[in-house]
Amino acid sequence: MLILKTLARLGSMHGFGIALFIQQTSDGVLEVEEGSLYPALQRLLLKGWVLADWRQTENNRRARYYTLTPEGKKALRAEVTSFDKVNKAIAQIIHPSEA
Amino acid sequence: MSLLQEIKRRLNYLRHREQFESDLEEEMRFHIDSRAELAGDQGQARRQFGNATLLREDSRAAWGWNGLESVAADVRYTLRGFRKAPLFAAIAIGTLAVAIGGGTAILSLAEATLLQPLPYPNANELTLIFEGSTRQAKVRSDTSPATYRSLRESMKTLHSLALYQPNEMNLTGDGEPERLDAGLASPNFFTTVGVQPHLGRFFREGEDVPGKDTVVILTYELWQRRFAGDPNILGRNIRLSETPYTVIGILPPHFRYYIDRGELWTPFASTPERWANRGARYIYITGRRAPGTSMDQVQAELDNLSAQYRREYPNEVPLLKLQAVDLHDRLTEESRTSLYFLLAAVLGLLLIACSNVAGLLLTRAIGRGAELSVRTALGASGGRLVRQLLTESLVLALLAGAASLLVAAAAFRVLQPLVPAGMLAFTTLELNTKVVAIQFSLALFCTIASGLLPAFRAAGSLTTRAIGGRHHETLRGGLIVAEIALAIILLTGATLLFRTFTNLNNVDPGFQPQNLISAQTVLPRSYYRDATLRTRFYTDVLERVNSIPGVAKAAFASAIPTSWKGGFSSVTIADKLYSPGQRAAMMRQVTPDYFATLQIPLREGRLFTSTDNAASEGVVIINQAMANHFWPGESVLGKRLHRGGPQSTNPWLTVIGVVGNVREMGLAEEAPIITYFPEVQHPAATFSSPIYIVARSNADPSQLGPALRRAILETNPNQTISKLQPVTELMARETEQQRIQTTITVAFAATALFLACLGIYGVLSFSVAQRRQEFGVRLALGASPSQLVGLVLNGGIRLTIVGTIIGLTAAALLTRFMETLLFQVKPLEPAVFATVTAILFATALFACWLPARRARQVEPGQALRYD
Predict the structure, then answer these.
(1) What pLDDT shows up at residue B490?
(2) Among candidates B17, B637, B816, B738, which has minimal Cα distance to B338?
(3) Closest to A63 (Cβ–Cβ): which among B2, B6, B30?
């Protein structure tokens, strides 16, 4: 979901860029093994939620850029909705007064 | 919708796998480079990225076919491993293949004989009735037509009672004359059994009357063999024992029944006198149990009826005790113990094979500790390693399964003759698909079971880094103890059977079977009635046979030892009280040279001569057993006896000689009591139909066959001649089953012993390799090489002793189930147990000594530097 959201925000980006973005936006809280991004990206490719193509970076190196597909966008919306639901539910349990 | 596309994408991936790999590689390199640029530290970047190899594998896994691909990789890896360790692979696969293949062959036999139902509808209802004696519980004989009639009228627990009787007939015309096994049956016999005619019909009521009984039903096999399956056979006349019979039906293929080898069937037709005779027993009764009726209920009814008949006919059947036996039980009775024994042997060998393969896999897993550590370090999880090791077991199982098929086919061919011919009649023996399926599950189960323990051990010990620790040795030691114990049990069984076999071969049959040839022939009916004709035929043939070069002596007899022919009769002895339950004597009519030809020794008195003829006094020769039975401690010469009970009008005969005992009923059976009559003095009507000619030659008797045949045919061209063969061959058939059973068991035991020793060898070799360092230290501290050898031997011997004690105890408990298989050897014979222990110890010591020797070769310096 984080990858999908990142791609939704950045348009298209390469793996390293995605990792960097997630790290920076989460203020370093979500610091995972950066490499684990790649198996996840493969699964997204397989599901058809993202597309990949090789482009030149600003530094003139070849990198694989990932872009959301319409299906990916739909999946993201569904995931966000369910995430919100769960989040809300957890919040209600933890802070019952605010409900 | 997306599933389809997903499959399309997966397929696409398969086509461009290399492209994928290089893309991923480049992408990851780009990532790490970028990070390194940012952090200014290549190492830091790598650490942050994680395990690149593992991540690549995970990425690939996403595209993979649900792990299929990694399984394929495991299989490839395994095969490569087997190629690198061919000895390990060969031993593991060979061990399992022998154990499972042998097991499969034996399972096939057991399936066919013990489990396979008879090919008749509701065969579990079929019951046989035998006549027994209230005095002797074990006697089970044929019964009489009169008893059959009584039972047919009164029995309630059995219905559709039918009778049949084995018979023999001469088939003449349409080619060479032939002596055929035949059967006589009551009209309802085939309907009781439940078969349908292949062609035509079965007998009708009314065809069981003398004069109307000239109809015949052929077996499918005879129809094919003799009449080439002629479709117009029905209504044809064929000549049977000089009488024309009309063919009315053909039986379905493979038709057989209990004690029947008949190739053709005619109606059982008898005179009113014979129907009324309750004492003459020569027929079999079969019937069906009413649904829901147990064998006990049938027996209870028979017990009541027997008591009733004993009261009603006290003179004819004073000791009658009818017995009901389930047909299938009766047929499998004799082979059952053997087959259970073989099944136990299979199981034992299988357990040994499993322990051995488990031991091998364990050793291999431990030996591969370094390799597995490297794989863990590269990111393989414990579960992944277990999967790898289990894949190896699985590949091993499949290879072993395939190899065991070959072993099974070979073993099956060897085992086939073990099944008694009577049982083979109902089933065609083959390795059927069911058994092959059982075999494969066995292969899988065994190998995975053997692989499971080592796999988890190996995976578990990796985390604790306790590879090759103490507990492994305990485990392997336990496996060895179990193997030795099982080997001892199998060895004990094999030794007992081997002793039985040699005992049987050392039994004195009471005559000299070497250089004897015999044949069976049948006199035309006209000869039977006329004693002069008959005697002239014998004299003429014997004259011709005696003039054949190489023939020393020849004789005719109504039966010969192990021919299983010739009846028993009660005898009345002058001046002795006759009791209805006294032992019956075997009856045999012979020409004078019978004893000289068979070389049966004369103990007392004289043998028959040509002066004992129809005009002279009636004489008889008896055997030692009969003399001891009726006249213990007395001289028997001149004593008088006659055939049949006191009321019989048979003439009195004088005993003129006593001859040695002959084991007429087979080597394992004591000699029966027997009376020999000169053929010329014996009433023709009682001379049983086939007669035997027996000749002693100076050399190989099989050379005599054609000359013997010619001598008979020159005398009478219409004689049928059958069973022309050396007597040793006739006798070998009897010991054949024992021989095969012994061979199989010895093979099993030898394999078990070999596997157990292989196990000991493996454990000790491994332990020597493991303890090199320790040995080096010991040597450096002053231990002598011999002490080291002793140390290793000690370990092996301790395992052997524990295994032997357990094995001997178990064997002592188990061998009593073998009692019926044994001859002149007791299940708990101390000599057998001593032999077994000696064999095992000798072999085990050798297996220990080989690796122990290596302890002597340890170089202290090198050993300490090692690792």
Answers:
(1) 84
(2) B738
(3) B30
Q: Do B55 and A15 touch (CB under 8 A)?
A: no
Is residue B287 within 8 Å of residue B158, measured between CB atoms? yes
Q: Which of B375-379, B420-424, B480-484 shows the highest mean pLDDT?
A: B480-484
Q: CA B289 to CA B123: how far, in whole Å?
A: 10
Count of structural domains within chain A: 1
Give the type of residue at B801.
I
DSSP per position, B751-784: HHHHHHHHHHHHHHHHHHHHTHHHHHHHHHTT--
3-class secondary structure, B613:
coil
| pLDDT at residue B686 in the model | 44
What Cα–Cα distance (Å) separates residue A55 from each residue in B37, B166, B524?
Answer: 20, 97, 110
Identity (one letter) of the amino acid at B705? Answer: G
Do B560 and B693 meet the contact criterion of CB atoms below 8 Å apart?
A: no
- Percent of chain B predicted with pLDDT > 90: 20
CB < 8 Å to B48, chain A: 33-34
CA atoms of B686 and B529, how far apart (whole Å):
10
Task: Scan for tokens 């009314």, then name that residue.
Answer: B206
The token pair at B505 is 């071969």
Task: Please measure the distance between the N-terminal and C-terminal CA atoms of chain A and give it in whole angstroms.
Answer: 26
Backbone angles phi, psi at B347, to 5 degrees: -60, -45
Pick from B271, B316, B291, B312: which is nearest to B154 by CA?
B312
pLDDT tens digits for range A59-95: 778 888 888 888 888 888 888 888 888 888 888 888 8
Contact B745, B497 (CB under 8 A): yes
Assigned token pair, B852: 């122990």
Determine contact, residues B541/B711, Cβ cutoff 8 Å: yes
Q: How far is Cα A84 from Cα A70, in angstroms, rounded to an integer?
A: 21
Residue with tokens 């690198």: B84
Please name every residue paired with B655 in a beta bridge, in sequence order, or none if there are none. B620
Say yes or no: B30 contacts chain A, CB-CB below 8 A. yes
pTM attached to this predicted model: 0.64
pLDDT computed for residue B197 by the predictor: 93
Q: Is the pLDDT of residue B481 over 60?
A: yes
From the list B476, B502, B412, B416, the residue with the least C-alpha distance to B825 is B502
Distance CA A21, CA A11 (A): 12
Contact of B26 with chain A, judged by CB distance below 8 Å, is answered with yes
Pairing mode, strands B243-250 and B215-218: parallel
Q: State whether ipTM is beyond 0.90.
A: no
d(C-alpha B640, C-alpha B539), whole Å: 29
Range of the domain at A30: 2-98
pLDDT score recorded for residue B851: 82
Q: Least CA distance to B58: which residue of chain A?
A: A39
| pLDDT single digits (tens) B676-724 | 988 888 754 444 467 889 999 988 888 888 888 888 888 887 777 888 8
User: Which site among B31, B35, B65 would you substitute to test the A interface, given the most A Cβ atoms closer than 10 Å to its Cβ?
Assistant: B31
Choice among B24-28, B134-138, B282-286, B395-399 with the minimum mean pLDDT: B134-138
Average pLDDT along chain B: 81
Report the alpha-carbon distance of residue B144 to residue B283 in Å, rounded. 6
Round to whole Å and give the CA distance between B116 and B254: 15
Phi-psi region of B272 (alpha: psi -120 to 50; beta: other; left: phi over 0): alpha
- The answer to whether the beta carbons of residues B499 and B833 sit under 8 Å apart is no
CA of B48, closest CA in chain A: separation in Å?
Answer: 6
- Could you tell me if B6 lies within 8 Å of chain A, comparing CB atoms? yes
Dist CA B778 CA B274 (whole Å): 94
- How far is A83 from chain B, CA to nearest CA, in Å? 23
Highest average pLDDT, of B94-108, B563-577, B683-697, B787-801, comes from B787-801
The values of phi and psi at residue B808, to 5°, are: -65, -40
